[in-house]
Amino acid sequence: MLAPVAPDIRHSRGGRPRDPSRDGVIRAAILRLLADVGYSALTMDAVASEAGVGKATIYRRWRTKEELVVDTVSELNAVEAEPVDTGSVEGDLRALTHAMVGLVTSPAGAATQALLSSMHHQPALAQAFRDGPLAVWHVAFDQMWARAEQRGEVPPGIARSLVAEAISAPVVQRWLVNGEPVDSALADAVVDEVALPLLRAHGARV
Asked: Where are the domains of the chain?
């Protein structure tokens, strides 16, 4: 699957047309509130107040809090995971790993952390997160592995395998569990000390 699959879950509410110039302000407000108060305490009214817009402006974009949150986080992930074809699997891995580091250390990363604890009690939110932000990254990595297979750099079957999961695991581990630095040095170390040795051990020509 080589086309982005993150759904556009925004719906028109009628009335006056949306003002696109406010989108960035509203999304920034959503991220700040998620990081500060978490998903459960987030309200549409609070978003409107934080962004300095009327409630109607929010409801013209999203019908529910769940749509508002997932759409916002999905769009930011889509920007960070924009496919980059460097001509080699090593270059592509390095670009995507640096993009992951950039995302988890951004306001979107802090907002995502706040969402994770709510997903255990909100099955619909968890599914929307899988269909949105996670799907964006799956597509980006699937495209990378498909290009690498076409170039003969990696054998078939690497995408979605344990090998592929292990490559991104150190970033996720530090971000969510260890509390150790997540920075560009980590991104390079993951590629050089984890990804490339693992791929070579599984028949890759890297």
From this structure: 20-63, 72-201
